Amino acid sequence: MTATFTLPSGDQLPAVGLGLWKIPKPQTANLVQTAVRAGYRHFDAACDYGNEAEAGAGFRSAIQAGACRRDELWITSKLWNTYHRSEHVRPACERSLRDLGVDYLDLYLIHFPIALEYVSPEVRYPPEWFYDPAAKDPRMKPAAVPLAETWRAMEELVTAGLVKNIGVCNFGCSLLRDLLSYARIRPAVLQVELHPYLTQEKLLRYCREERIAVTGFSPLGASSYLSLNMAKADESVLEQPVVKHAAARLGKTPAQVVLRWGMQRGTAVVPKTTHPARLAENLAIFDFELSADEMRAISALDRGRRFNDPGQFCESAFNTFFPIYE
Fold first, then answer.
1. Is residue 241 part of a domain?
2. Residue 2 counted as domain residue
3. What is the pLDDT along the chain (326 residues), one digit of tens a residue?
4. Annotated catalytic sites, by residue?
5. Domain that holds residue 218
6. Residues 108-128: tens digit of each pLDDT
7. pTM, whole model, 2 decimals?
């Protein structure tokens, strides 16, 4: 049985999920079905990933085959940057619901604390980052939308029964503190980049004190970013001696050790893979435990290395300087 974290609503967030970022569309439906058969019940999707319709086909096939029921699945999606104005939040959620083929989401997150000008789905879906990719000098087009406006619209999704829990991604302590000052429905989950090179100890402590569950994306670090030229091959945490030593002691793989480290810190993890063998490997982290010394040693690898940083990639990829963490 997969371990879970209890949210303020009483819902149970599975500790390990499958991240759907960068899963190619042609592989997504079959991968989702394979993951369900392997025991996955937590799936981390987003409008921006561009494969929600394919994931939905996978869910339908798995349910029709009797591999699971809808109420056994935990499906997360995310509100994209171009839909932050209140009038766009519900239509964006409803589009994800249609694509995923479900009547409700278990969790809906604000993807980034970045508001961009609206792009109609008839023009482009997913909208991505550029306002007009065909422009002579394509750029992001920021929109002046208060987070309070977006959050109120997110709360209405819960009231309407479209979403069971709401939360945020890529927020720091200051934004969370501000959000908590006016939220009628408190954020249930924060999803942020977390791995041994970016441990974010103060942020995790703050979330524990505020009873906000935390999910770590890119829990294995550099591997997701090599193909994007956002990480170097020598930045793999899986090659660190302390990780290898723990793996050898336990008879586990370095990836299992790093995922267990994340879960043992009290965070859910959503690793991504397209390989069936790795699907099973990433889920098999509940039958062992890292020692206190191993936990401390792995945490000591922290170097504040953030691979997914809009303050860097927005300028290099989208011609727009847009820092959010500084």
1. yes
2. no
3. 359 999 999 999 999 999 999 999 999 999 999 999 999 999 999 999 999 999 999 999 999 999 999 999 999 999 999 999 999 999 999 999 999 999 999 999 999 999 999 999 999 999 999 999 999 999 999 999 999 999 999 999 999 999 999 999 999 999 999 999 999 999 999 999 999 999 999 999 999 999 999 999 999 999 889 988 899 989 999 999 999 999 999 999 999 999 999 999 999 999 999 999 999 999 999 999 999 999 999 999 999 999 999 999 999 999 999 999 99
4. 49
5. 15-318
6. 999 999 999 999 999 999 999
7. 0.97
Q: How many domains does the chain have?
A: 1
Helix 276-283 vs helix 254-264: angle between axes, to the nearest 10 degrees? Answer: 40
Residue 36, in any domain of the structure = yes
Give residue-wise pLDDT tens across range 68-92. 999 999 999 999 999 999 999 999 9
The DSSP bridge partners found for residue 110 are 79, 168
Residue 77 lies in a domain: yes
CATH number of the domain bearing residue 178: 3.20.20.100
